[in-house]
Write a structure and sequence with these properties.
The complex is a heterodimer of chains A (116) and B (115).
Chain A (H helix, E strand, L loop, with lengths): L3 E4 L2 E4 L5 E7 L6 E7 L6 E7 L5 E2 L8 E7 L2 E6 L8 E9 L5 E4 L3 E5 L1
Parallel strand pairs in A: 2-11
Antiparallel strand pairs in A: 1-3, 3-8, 4-5, 4-9, 5-6, 7-8, 9-10, 9-11
Chain B lengths: L3 E2 L5 E4 L4 E7 L4 E9 L6 E6 L3 E5 L2 E6 L4 E6 L8 E9 H4 L6 E2 L3 E6 L1
Classes of the chains: A mainly beta (116), B mainly beta (115).
């Protein structure tokens, strides 16, 4: 399967600051990447679909001005949480879709964000 | 009605037994089905994909799909304590996404394998 990395793996920031999370597809070019959020003991919630060279597609209820997504290259998508608040503390996970073998999605290791 | 439903568990099985995990979905147009394993504090790991009716085996894992009943299951043979995790069922259909490969996840079933 696809190899996906995320950086940082863990970040603590103060309320009101912005945090950028990087997602990299290491072994193939991904025109589409996905960003998920997961709260403790809850299932994955798709936040947005990141499209290389165009605007991201956000899910209903996700604030696009708060969660900025940039997919500037075929191997890198970034998620910036702007003006973070404690309620944004969560596990953020990206995934890539490898069409060659079907529609399997492969996840990065995730980023644990804590806003104090 | 939830789009993808799973029993939250926990499902407790003894070591060496068969664990059976079930998932139902609401959209008859669903075409692709996946099982992910998620250990606590980690991201999901794809363990099985299935696209046509019937069984698909990979090692100790067997995925079963019945599109008429809108039902997909995962069997784990010879369960080990290391199999203890949350298992997520995911479904993709054109009806959900309108064009791109969005997956719909169930809430997951927590499996506990005890020695």
């Amino acid at each position: 399967g696809a190899v996906v990395s995320q950086h940082p793996s863990r970040v603590i920031c103060k309320s009101g600051t912005s945090v950028k999370i990087e997602c990299r597809s290491l072994d193939f070019q991904a025109t589409t990447m996905f960003w998920y959020r997961q709260f403790p003991k809850k299932s994955l919630m798709l936040m947005a679909t990141s499209n290389e060279g165009s605007k991201a597609t956000y899910e209903q209820g996700v604030e696009k001005d708060k969660f900025l997504i940039n997919h500037a290259s075929l191997t890198l998508s970034t998620l910036t949480v702007t003006s973070a608040h404690p309620e944004d503390s969560s596990f953020y996970i990206c995934s890539v879709n490898q069409l060659a073998g079907g529609y399997e999605q492969y996840f990065g290791p995730g980023t644990r964000l804590t806003v104090t | 009605q939830k789009e993808v439903e799973q029993n939250s568990g926990p499902l407790s099985v003894p070591e060496g037994a068969i664990a059976s995990l079930n998932c139902t979905y609401s959209d008859r147009g669903s075409q692709s089905f996946f099982w992910y394993r998620q250990y606590s504090g980690k991201s999901p790991e794809l363990i099985m994909s299935i696209y046509s009716n019937g069984d698909k085996e990979d090692g100790r894992f067997t995925a079963q799909l019945n599109k008429a009943s809108q039902y997909v299951s995962l069997l784990i043979r010879d369960s080990q304590p290391s199999d203890s995790a949350t298992y997520l069922c995911a479904v993709k259909s054109i009806g959900f996404s309108g064009g791109y490969n969005k997956l719909i996840f169930g809430a997951g079933t927590r499996l506990a394998v005890h020695p």
